Amino acid sequence: MSGYLRVGNTGEEEIGVVPVNERGAEQAPRLRCLVAGASGYIGGRLVPELLAAGHTVRCLARTPGNLRGHVWAGRAEVVKGDVTDEASVRDAMRGIDVAYYLVHALGAGADFEESDRRAARIFGEQARAAGVRRIVYLGGLTPRDVPERDLSPHLRSRTEVGRILLDSGVPTAVLRAAVIIGSGSASFEMLRYLTERLPAMVTPSWVRTPVQPIAVRDVLRCLVGCAELPPDVSRTFDIGGPDVITYEDMMQRYAAVAGLPRRLIVPVPVLTPKLSSLWIGLVTPVPGAIARPLAESLRHEVVCRERDLARYVPDPPHGPIGFDRALELALKRVQYAEVTTSWSAASVPGAPSDPLPTDPDWAGGSLYDDKRAQVVDAPPEALWQVIEGIGGENGWYSFPLAWAVRGWLDRLAGGVGLRRGRRDARRLRVGDSLDFWRVEEIDPGRLLRLRAEMRLPGLAWLELRTGRDRRGRTVYLQRALFHPHGLTGHAYWWGVSPFHGLVFGGMARNIAKAAAREAART
To answer: Is residue 11 part of a domain?
Structure first.
């Protein structure tokens, strides 16, 4: 089924999670859950939540092995199959109490509606035949008083899928959400890229249409809670956060939370969904095939008509997460991108709003990097001695004038420049200042990570590592990373990138030579 979200593998054998009560005694797992769509944005985050709730989880996987990057790999069973293959769905349903259907044809070909229809019918029929107690489906929130024929094709198809599952004879909960806010979700990534990259923009008129976003943490809380709904409950539920705002407001509030200047937004009526998707594709890395249905779904007001699910799945003590807080949760880890070693305090590791290794390549924020590798004619110990001694009186091993000029410019801008030097000429520890860097992580003999404290339109790091290649030779590995802040940050990176070969390339070569000299002296 071309274009469908695929479910990957977490291991060849079934491994259930057995919760432990306060006395340490093992308890039987509460429910056996099947997740179709575990490679998708929601599915990949739902599996660990179900496991944490004490349930066992089985994933239906078209291509086993695709999900080894998930944090829950090895804790859930995976069976090979496809939602359009009746036999494999039948096998996957055996012994299941609750079946989650999180498969959507977002970005699929022209026949996606028929594929959606067929897959939903197979899923519902096989669930009924297997005696599954409940189906849970996450669909899209539909606008009030808009005929189904006037909906976008993708929203219309998701509505039809919900209806097919409700008619399956198995008690079904169809949750309908509008914009989901969490790092990695297509809706959030589109919002973030548009806001960060465009200080001024001409937009479609739909940016002033009311919408009710919801934090991904609340979506997952609702999905997990639906596993234990009473058997006589079979219906749709609208789910949303506490804020009803326009897309224009969402962009302005994103800018405020991200520390960006207020955006100039000029809506015009001439941008059709097709033109809007082309414009989004030009400005952001979100694929046009995904951007178009997202843009089409925002043409109409999408606001919850009821909050009945709260009767069965109570809200947390402080209520659902608000829009601004949802942005903060999503941005905390996005800002640190791949460099998360010492940011455990930024948010709880593995939180649903965090990026996952299996998220799409275009998700997770812009992160520019410059990677260098150099074979070193010296043992790793000699190379590490040079790495740990970098900066201060020893300098940065490349184009001294360039580093000096950068230091002067930083001081003119009110920064620290190169005047701080280093605490100890030979040894570093976490937290040490090092010219206009600070030591963020150090693994003696292996890794030195520095965080920039110079004036920059973004966040920057420099990683220096020792390693070995397949032939056993010592290798110096160097990586400069930059997470831009707004359009100025992108312009800064592209403005200085022509000099990276001279500065960073020379640095890698000279550190390798210095290590060789150090080895020769000893």
So the answer is: no
Q: Is residue 12 situated within a structural domain? A: no
- Which residue in 442, 438, 431 sits closest to 454, CA to CA? 438
pLDDT averages per 10-residue partition of the chain, 522 residues: 32 33 47 91 91 94 73 85 92 96 69 87 96 96 83 85 96 95 84 85 84 95 96 96 94 91 86 69 69 74 93 93 91 51 33 57 69 93 93 81 70 64 79 84 91 84 92 93 83 86 89 91 78
Query: Residue 389 carries which side chain, given as an amino acid letter?
Result: G
Single-letter code of the amino acid located at 280: I
pLDDT of residue 187: 84
Query: Looking at residue 13, what is its pLDDT?
Result: 29
Q: Are 226 and 101 in contact (CB under 8 A)?
A: no
Q: Say how far apart CA 191 and CA 176 lie, in whole Å.
A: 20
Q: Which CATH number does the domain housing residue 319 bear?
A: 3.40.50.720
- In the block, tokens 């009526």 appear at 269
Residue with tokens 């001294």: 400
Radius of gyration (C-alpha) of the chain in whole angstroms: 26
Reduced DSSP (H G I as helix, E B as strand, rest coil) percent helix, strand, coil of the chain, to 5:
35, 20, 45
**Residue 415 resides in a domain:** yes
Residue tagged 């548009």 (tokens): 194
Query: In this structure, are 40 and 92 located in the same domain?
Result: yes
Whole-Å CA distances, 280 to 204, 215, 293: 11, 23, 12
Q: Final residue of a domain: which of 332, 352, 376?
A: 332
Residue 6 lies in a domain: no
d(CA 83, CA 465): 45
Token output for 516: 């060789």
Range of the domain at 91: 32-332
Are 378 and 472 found together in one domain?
A: yes
pTM for this entry: 0.69
